[in-house]
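A.,

Following up on our hallway conversation. C-alpha cells first:
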C-alpha cells in the first residue's frame, strides 16, 4: 500500500468514477484500475462492487475512506511543515470571477510565479455558479468568487469587497433625486447571466419595484459596461473599475436609495483541510487583492 494508491482510491470515491479520477490524476484508466487492484490485493478486501455498470464503493471501502483521507492529509502536513516552501510544485486549478480577472489577477499570477516558480496554474474564468459547482465536484482546487455565503463543505477566506453602483450612458436623463426601486419598472436593465451573484442582486431590485421585466443578459462585465455606455440600458457596475469612463462622461453613476451593498469576495476551497498548494495561492490572493474591506 502506498500514498498514490490511497489518493487514487479517494479521487474515485469523490468524483464517482474511474474515468473521472484518471482525468484528474493525469493517468490512463488502466493505470487507475491497476492501482486499485493492487490496493485491494494488499488489504485482502474488495473496495468497489463491480457487478454493475458503475463501480460503487463497498462497506469496507467506505470504512477505508476516512483512514485514507487522514493519511493523505498527514502526508500533506509533513510536506508543508518540513519541506522548504519555495520547493512547492504542482498544478493548481483556479476558478476566477471576471471582476478579479479584470483587476488583481495579473498581480496574483506574477507574485506566485516569483515565489513558487514550480507551481503551475490552470485558470478558469466564468460566472459564480459554474465555478462553485466545479469546486464542489472537484474540477477546481480553489476559486476567487463573490457571494455572502457558500455551500456546506466549502472553506472561505475573505479577500475584500467591491462596491457596485447603478450606472448609465451619458445621455440618460435621471430624476433630480435618488432612484428608488419603483423607478426601475420603466428602465431597461442589463445584467450578467442567471448563474451570477450580479443577476441575483439585479433581480432583487426588480422584484422590489414590482416589475415583471426580464433583464437583458450578458456573460461579460466588460461587454455589459460597453452596452451601458452606449445607452442600451442601465446596469450595476463597480466604479473603481471604470474611473476613466466616468471621468470622460461615457458612464455616469446614478444616485439610488438605498445604495447597493458592497459585494464580498472570497478565496474558496473544498473541505476543512487545505493543501500547501491551495494555501500558497490563497495567502497570496489575500495579500495582493485590491478590494477594500468596505468595498472601496
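Then the amino acids I'd put at each of the 296 positions:
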Amino acid at each position: 500500500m502506498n500514498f498514490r494508491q490511497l489518493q487514487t482510491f479517494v479521487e474515485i470515491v469523490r468524483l464517482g468514477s474511474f474515468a473521472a479520477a484518471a482525468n484528474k490524476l493525469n493517468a490512463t484508466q488502466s493505470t487507475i484500475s491497476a492501482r486499485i487492484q493492487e490496493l485491494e490485493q494488499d488489504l485482502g478486501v474488495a473496495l468497489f462492487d463491480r457487478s454493475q455498470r458503475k463501480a460503487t464503493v463497498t462497506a469496507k471501502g467506505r470504512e477505508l475512506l476516512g483512514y485514507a483521507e487522514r493519511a493523505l492529509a498527514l502526508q500533506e502536513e509533513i510536506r508543508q511543515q518540513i519541506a522548504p516552501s519555495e520547493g512547492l510544485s504542482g498544478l493548481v486549478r483556479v476558478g476566477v470571477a471576471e471582476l478579479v480577472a479584470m483587476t488583481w489577477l495579473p498581480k496574483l499570477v506574477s507574485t506566485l510565479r516569483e515565489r513558487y516558480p514550480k507551481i503551475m496554474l490552470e485558470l478558469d474564468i466564468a460566472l459564480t455558479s459554474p465555478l462553485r459547482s466545479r469546486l464542489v465536484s472537484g474540477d477546481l482546487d480553489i476559486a476567487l468568487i463573490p457571494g455572502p455565503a457558500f455551500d456546506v463543505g466549502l472553506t472561505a477566506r475573505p479577500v475584500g469587497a467591491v462596491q457596485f453602483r447603478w450606472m448609465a450612458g451619458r445621455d440618460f436623463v435621471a430624476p433630480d433625486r435618488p432612484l428608488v426601486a419603483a423607478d426601475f419598472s420603466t428602465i431597461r436593465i442589463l445584467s450578467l447571466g442567471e448563474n451570477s451573484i450580479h443577476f441575483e442582486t439585479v433581480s432583487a431590485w426588480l422584484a422590489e419595484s414590482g416589475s415583471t421585466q426580464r433583464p437583458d443578459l450578458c456573460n461579460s462585465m466588460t461587454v455589459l459596461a460597453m452596452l451601458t455606455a452606449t445607452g442600451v440600458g442601465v446596469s450595476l457596475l463597480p466604479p473603481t473599475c471604470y474611473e476613466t469612463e466616468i471621468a470622460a462622461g461615457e458612464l455616469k453613476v446614478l444616485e439610488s436609495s438605498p445604495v447597493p451593498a458592497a459585494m464580498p469576495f472570497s478565496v474558496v476551497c473544498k473541505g476543512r483541510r487545505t493543501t500547501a498548494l491551495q494555501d500558497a495561492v490563497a495567502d497570496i490572493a489575500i495579500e495582493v487583492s485590491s478590494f477594500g474591506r468596505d468595498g472601496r
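The chain has a mean pLDDT of 88. Curious whether your intuition agrees with the design.

B.
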